[in-house]
Amino acid sequence: MPNFEFGNVSNPEEAQRLGEILCQCFNFPTKDWPFYRDRLGLESFRVLRQEGKIAAGLGIYQMGQWFGGQSVPMAGIAAVGVPPEYRGTGVAFELLSQTLKELYDSGVPVSSLYPATQRLYRKVGYEQAGTRCTWELPTQSIRMSERSMPVRSVESSQHEVFHELYRQQASRNNGNLDRNTAIWENAVQHPDNAVYAYIAGSESQPEGYIIFSPKQEVGSNLLTIWDWAAVTPAAQRRLWAFLADHRSQIDKVIWQGSTLDSRLFLLAEQTAKIRSLDIWFLRVVNVALALEKRGYPAAMVAELHLSVTDNLLPANNGNFVLKVSGGRGEVTKGGKGELQLDIRALAPLYTGLFTAYQLHANGQLEATENALSLATQIFAGSQPWMPDFF
Length: 390
Fold this sequence. Notes:
Aminopeptidase, alpha+beta, 35% strand, 3 domains, 13-stranded mixed sheet, five-stranded mixed sheet
């Protein structure tokens, strides 16, 4: 095994070298590195060294993710980069393994990421956990005309005005991020585009907002929605009408949502189409903490006996009893181990991407019929998705 050293970026020269590596790996202009570095914070990057040279690096977003109506502390892994001369030597696996051990020691329950390749992340315990769809809709087909709610222009860079509205909407959707400042800046700052933002509702009681940019595509004009939220049906109808009012110049509206976007239910015709689909991964870093931090159906009183296998983090191995009551969970060691699965299979069960029955049908877990039924009910909820990319 090569002699690797894992840790933080140690000096300005090393920070510069990390920037060069990540820009090469992800085809970013080198001038963008200081912007990305400062947005995330240099202390949020980790590197793997071999003989004093950086062999791999990544960034960590410390934030939260909503599951069952509760914000679960989450580490978002981004910009996992390995220079070409070190590829195929196991450095990415070692970097991720060391990062996950650090996250466990820090008390982080879960970690999420967008994989460039699934094999690598599955080796360290990540698995498919939710979706991010890009939708497109012809503006001519929206046909909403409810304009009684006032709409006013605001400055998008002052994103604090949107936070509470976003939180109200995000908390209802499994997988949505409990955003930190860096993610908010990703949502509202787009240097290459003119960005416009509007709030719907009265000044004292806003009910929705929308942040967008007009763009040109070959043969059509687009309106790209960077972020939007509506906490009342009236606000959602008003935002649809607001978008419809762009139809004289804008051909299509583009936004990110789930594979079944409930906002489309309000439209008379279902003419929206999915342009692209990304699947994000989640890793349960600490089994007991993750199960205790998420929310559960409020009226459910149940006891689920799990047996978990984790080849990377030994403390996650063994039997656990999850007791659910009043919308919250309590975990103790031991129990009958009636639902047996490895750490990867726990991820889509935890987020609600797949039910226990679906995972069982694919050979991802073994369980008694009673445990399958209980797990399906306990982890029931909205389909997990997120609008953000990191």
